[in-house]
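Recap from last week: sequence in, structure out.
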Amino acid sequence: MISKNIAILGGGNLGSSIAKGLVKSGLMTPEQITITNLELELIQHLKDEDGFNITTDNVSAIEGAEIVIVAVKPTAAMALLNQVKEVLTSGNHVLISVISGVKIHDLEEVLGNMPIIRVMPNTAIAIQESMTALSFNEKGLEYKNEVVNIFDQLGSTMVIPEAQMPAATVLASCGIAFALRFLRAASQGGIEIGFSSKLSQEIAAQIMKGASKLIIENNSHPEPEIDKVTTPLGVTIKSLNKMEYEGFSSSLISGVVAGYNKILETES
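Predicted structure tokens:
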């Protein structure tokens, strides 16, 4: 466990997922975490069901914490940071930003020279299965081991140059949606060939889990694993070739690139 308190400014899906993941990992207790939102009723369940501290007061949340995680929408970020910049101090706080599209330089312009870490997790952080990318400013590097250790408890981490953060956002964060869309499509196909909706979804979810473990645990590449189940004149290759003919791989690649270009537009 860590002894520091954390303030999470923004109790939306990502902010609450981080909080739940920290507790589920055993790294922190709910009492160490304060979550804020402008509308208290929207996060009341986080107190009633999970035991977190909640408040609408960002300043008081920061004053009671050593680590501050900003998890608001990009459109609300600068107004929030300007509101709290007087209480965010280099000697007392480490700032972790999960704001998509907001660069470390942008944060430094508002907050000055303080430890800043830009982090891009995904919502699987709530079950300790996130793929989280991290970039540090110079002062933030002093806390590199501590911060990486925190997010290592919540899945897998990769420390990258900030220039790669747009790519990490699309593949590691948005990628959850891409994978779930595949799961939904596979499940719908299962319904069409005779399974119930519930059973079809269970099958699709388990095959995704199994496929991922084959790659991660065997340190393998998809193609050799695909070759193991594609026999000559077989069902698998017939299905795969039909999917490729309909644009399966090319549409997914195009979608990843489109998302990447959208982020570059936002950040430019």
